[in-house]
Write a structure and sequence with these properties.
The protein has 20 helices and 16 strands. Strand 11 (324-331) and strand 12 (334-341) form a beta hairpin. The longest helix is centred in the first third of the chain and has 23 residues, at 13-35. 42% of the residues lie in helices and 16% in strands.
Length: 533
């Protein structure tokens, strides 16, 4: 393969200035991630400890193989969302190794609002279910949940049933769910273990019932204590809802690890990776290359050179459709196709992208999209040349691609460019953002400008005066609001991605997800429907 030769001058002032700006964004990310570590008020945590309970994150740590990697997913779900329980909601989740097998782990934060499910936690749980299904991941639920947060029931109830349905569908697909119940699990919280393939209840602490003693009293006038109604001992010896009775939390985690060790799931990848070579250039240099201001262009090859093995990249159609860079490489020894932006998508670059995606499917090669895109080119000449149909070809190819696809938003992600570059709506296996990224219909300057033109034309049609001063104030206000609702932190709070990552973690994150992907057969398609020619 050809080796990318970097043209970056790390001693230039522009590089150094941008490095500092990106470093501040990364520091903002880490500062915000600290908020996601909140697990309830100290008094609630102390009360839990007196009952022999661990926190949600401690349970995960004790469950995972020692010193093994853990990829936390959507740690900032709910950030800035009105009514949310805060960053991460009431659920901590990610992918890690248990008894040498890759598993999806979810843990209710029982010390925060009793582990009740708010709207952000529900959205997160539904996305986790998709990840589990697509990657055929056994799921370990560490359960302590009061069910739906009742003030949010109108937003939660209807869609909340998806989580129970999906547990059974995973089971049908021979992908098991193991639930360990650590505390009160009421109503919807009770159905999680109820639907699971394996259930482990912790003695004295697990309490699982559809309705607690107060509601039973209201509904039936029956008086019953919580242990008799739904205690671990009762479910293990009387109802049969519990498959295993754990003596304490550590015993419950031990049983879960033994269950996973007996599951018939791969511990090695089907595809044997090549010998891993480090990139020729330090990955730390990404902070000087990726622009903090998404309006400033940069060569995506400089990013590729710092994340792929040996900085080797076999580029496809290098001299044609130059605003789209396509080619083959390896990351941590695994083959990967890369599609990345070096500017707006023209007719030729759109056709190039569609062609390359077809080749990846014929070759059974997963695709990584590196997004930094303002959209498709507009204007008379491009419309007359068929920009719509050429763009539609690339979107068709992305929509119907059979190989696993991954997306990293490393700059702008505007308009239909987001679609063509495998945005959230196109179901990439994983989608991560850099802290500088922006996502919207268009940039704030363009959107505010369009709205100004519409208002000016409206005033002209109505025969009224157009207040220039007020219009300028409105334009600046609109720009600020759009930028606030377009940045990476807003997007991740809405669960539009699977998490914001430090650009310097890209290679390791991709190494983990490619390992996961290659646990199963990677198979492309040759079925595309109609390409408008």
């Amino acid at each position: 393969m050809s080796t990318i030769v970097s043209k970056i001058n790390v001693n230039s002032q522009s590089y150094k200035d941008n490095y500092q700006k990106m470093l501040k964004k990364v520091e903002e990310l880490h500062k915000t991630l600290q908020k996601s570590l909140f697990q309830g008020q100290e008094k609630h945590i102390e009360r839990a400890r007196t009952k022999g309970k661990m926190t949600a994150r401690e349970r995960i740590e004790m469950l995972l193989d020692p010193d093994s990697p853990f990829l936390e997913l959507m740690p900032l779900a709910g950030l800035g969302v009105k009514g949310s329980f805060g960053p991460s909601g009431s659920l901590v989740a990610g992918i890690g190794f248990i008894s040498g097998k890759m598993c999806l782990v979810t843990s209710n934060v029982g010390t925060n609002k009793g582990g009740a499910v708010d709207i952000s936690s529900l959205q997160k749980a539904m996305r986790l279910s998709e990840i589990g299904k697509e990657n055929k991941l056994p799921t370990i639920n560490l359960v302590e949940s009061a069910g739906a947060n009742l003030p949010d029931q109108a937003q939660i109830f209807n869609m909340g049933g998806n989580n129970f349905k999906n547990i059974t569908r995973h089971s049908k697909a021979q992908v098991p769910t193991i639930s360990i119940v650590f505390g009160n699990s009421t109503a919807g919280g009770a159905y999680i273990p109820g639907m699971s393939d394996y259930t482990i209840f912790v003695k004295n602490n697990a309490k699982v019932f559809l309705a607690g003693p107060p509601l039973v009293k209201m509904a039936t006038n029956e008086e019953v204590d919580d242990e008799t109604l739904g205690g671990a001992d009762m479910h293990a010896k009387v109802s049969g809802v519990a498959d295993y009775l754990a003596q304490d939390e550590m015993d419950g985690l031990r049983i879960a690890r033994e269950l996973v060790s007996n599951l018939d799931f791969p511990t090695n990848t089907i595809l044997q990776p090549k010998e891993v070579e480090d990139p020729l250039y330090p990955i730390d240099e990404l902070l000087g290359i990726i622009q903090a201001d998404v309006k400033i262009p940069y060569d995506c090859r400089e990013v590729i050179a710092r994340i792929v093995d040996g900085s080797e990249f076999h580029e496809f159609k290098k001299e044609w459709g130059k605003t789209l860079v396509c080619g083959f490489a390896h990351i941590h020894g695994f083959p990967i196709a890369i599609i990345s932006n070096n500017g707006v998508l023209f007719n030729d670059s759109s056709n190039k992208g569609a062609h390359f995606i077809q080749l990846c499917n014929m070759n059974n090669t997963p695709i990584l999209f590196l997004q930094n895109i303002t959209g498709f080119m507009v204007g008379k000449d491009y419309e007359q040349a068929g920009m719509i149909k050429d763009g539609a070809k690339m979107i068709n190819a992305v929509s119907n691609s059979g190989v696993p696809m991954f997306t990293i938003m490393m700059g702008a992600s505007y308009g239909a460019g987001n679609y063509a570059m495998c945005g959230r709506a196109y179901n990439p296996r994983f989608l991560f953002s850099y802290p500088n990224s922006m996502i919207a219909v268009m940039g704030s300057e363009q959107l505010a400008g369009v709205m100004e033109m519409v208002a000016r034309a409206g005033a002209q049609r109505a025969g009224t005066n157009y207040d220039e001063k007020q219009a300028e104030q409105m334009k600046e206000f609109m720009k600020a609001e759009i930028e606030k609702q377009s940045n990476a932190f807003f997007a991740t709070g809405q669960v539009w991605d699977d998490g914001i990552i430090d650009p310097r973690d890209t290679r390791n994150v991709m190494g983990l997800v490619l390992t996961l992907t290659n646990m199963q057969e990677v198979k492309g398609t040759n079925a595309w429907g109609v390409f408008r020619m």
